[in-house]
TrEMBL record:
Keyword annotations of the record: Membrane, Transmembrane, Transmembrane helix
This protein's name: PIG-P domain-containing protein
Entry membrane topology: Multi-pass membrane protein
Broad class of the protein's primary localization: membrane
């Protein structure tokens, strides 16, 4: 026999703190926007006559505040762009190619037969590709450059 004090199982769960904070932020935003519209649209005679609204600044500030906020946002974008360009290394820096998470293949001295060129259409030493095939490594920039830009034959 179920007890009288037992709650039914189909009750919805309580809202999380994020939902509560989000709702409060939404209500506060709407209230501040309504106060801003009242301040901007009511005549100054009504604003000064009412004691609750008498502390608001002059109505000229209704255009200055949004303009200041827009300039602040644009200046923030500009400052982040400048900070990003300042912190970007130059194009000839090795930090663009290798960082602390790079997996560089171990350097192996090429054997005598590994220095021979392959007989296929590739004109690269075998030892370069074998070091990469042994594990999950980043390909060295020299190998990539030789793969993309093959050596040209010089004609006299």
């Amino acid at each position: 026999m179920p007890s009288i004090m037992q709650l039914p199982d189909d009750d919805p769960p309580l809202p999380s703190y994020r939902a509560t904070n989000g709702f409060l932020a939404l209500c506060t935003t709407y209230a501040l926007f309504a106060l801003y519209l009242i301040w901007a649209l009511l005549p100054s005679s009504i604003l000064t006559a009412h004691p609750f609204l008498a502390w608001l600044p002059d109505q000229a500030w209704t255009t200055v505040v949004p303009s200041f906020l827009m300039v602040t946002v644009l200046a923030t974008y500009g400052s982040y762009l400048g900070l990003m360009l300042y912190n970007t290394p130059p194009m000839n820096s090795l930090s663009l190619l290798v960082d602390q998470r790079s997996e560089v293949p171990p350097q192996r001295p090429p054997s005598s037969n590994a220095q021979m060129r392959t007989t296929t259409s590739s004109s690269y030493p075998n030892h370069e590709f074998q070091a990469i095939e042994d594990g999950p490594y980043d390909a060295p920039i020299g190998v990539i450059n030789r793969r993309i830009f093959p050596p040209r034959r010089r004609t006299p």
